[in-house]
């Protein structure tokens, strides 16, 4: 083990650049997958004819495919139909689709957890279906979704490491390159990468626990 040389200024800068890329891709994917998941989950909850069943099929397909396969598809298969995506955009698209499918199930389950009696009472008082959904169902459902959503976001952050297979310059890819300089760098670099992942994910897990205590 050679901690001194493994953590030289250049190596540390290189690894932290990868960590920044990990956070950047994760943040963008979290925002996009949350929006996608909310839209799809709400549509499935409202049981719109044709559209809801079709989206349900797509969600089940995505949820039951390995994320690695989706990443490969976004990077190497889409160019065959004229869609060229670099490693960053391919990773974001793959993570957004996969995590969006997962989040849509969280949203649908959260909305379904609301007592039907409240919905019937709101409708009988004169509220339209849309108003009932917006003012009664969504506010309560979102409160119950917060803890599982944060847990899903933690999984998304860890899943960015899979993009190493398409040479996304994220934390694991940069760590692999530094390790390639010397076998003595393996333990120091991997320990640093583990610490960085742990620090962010543990902070998110603490947030999830606090929110679970507050909302559930």
From TrEMBL:
GO biological process: amino acid transport
Gene3D superfamilies in the cross-refs: MetI-like
The keyword Protein transport is annotated on this UniProt entry: no
Topology versus the membrane: Multi-pass membrane protein
ABC transmembrane type-1 domain boundaries: 19-208
Transmembrane intervals: 20-43, 55-76, 88-107, 183-204
Annotated signal sequence range: none
Source organism superkingdom: Bacteria
CC per GO annotation: ATP-binding cassette (ABC) transporter complex
Entry's Gene Ontology molecular function annotations: transmembrane transporter activity
UniProt cross-references to SUPFAM superfamilies, sorted A to Z: MetI-like (SSF161098)
InterPro entries: AA_ABC_transptr_permease_3TM (IPR010065), ArtM/GltK/GlnP/TcyL/YhdX-like (IPR043429), MetI-like (IPR000515), MetI-like_sf (IPR035906)
Location of the protein in the cell: Cell membrane
Pfam annotation, one family: BPD_transp_1
Keywords: Amino-acid transport, Cell membrane, Membrane, Transmembrane, Transmembrane helix, Transport
Main location group: membrane
NCBIfam families, A to Z: HEQRo_perm_3TM (TIGR01726)
Similarity annotation: Belongs to the binding-protein-dependent transport system permease family.
The protein, known as: Amino acid ABC transporter membrane protein 2 (PAAT family)
Protein species of origin: Paenibacillus prosopidis
């Amino acid at each position: 083990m050679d901690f001194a040389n493994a953590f030289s200024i250049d190596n540390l800068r290189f690894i932290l650049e990868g960590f920044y890329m990990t956070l950047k891709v994760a943040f963008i994917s979290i925002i996009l997958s949350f929006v996608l998941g909310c839209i799809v989950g709400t549509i499935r909850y409202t049981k719109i004819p044709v559209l809801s069943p079709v989206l349900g099929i797509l969600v089940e397909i995505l949820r039951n495919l390995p994320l690695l396969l989706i990443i490969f598809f976004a990077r190497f298969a889409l160019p065959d139909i004229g869609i060229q995506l670099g490693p960053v955009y391919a990773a974001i698209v793959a993570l957004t689709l996969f995590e969006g499918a997962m989040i849509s199930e969280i949203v649908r389950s959260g909305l379904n957890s609301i007592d039907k009696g409240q919905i019937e009472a709101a409708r009988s008082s004169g509220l339209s279906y849309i108003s009932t959904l917006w003012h009664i169902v969504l506010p309560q459902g979102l409160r119950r979704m917060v803890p599982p959503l944060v847990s899903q976001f933690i999984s998304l952050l860890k899943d960015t490491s899979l993009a190493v297979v398409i040479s996304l310059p994220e934390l694991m890819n940069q760590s692999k390159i530094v390790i390639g300089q010397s076998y003595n760098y393996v333990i120091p670099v991997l320990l640093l990468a583990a610490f960085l992942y742990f620090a962010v994910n543990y902070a998110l897990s603490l947030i999830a626990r606090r929110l679970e205590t507050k909302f559930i």
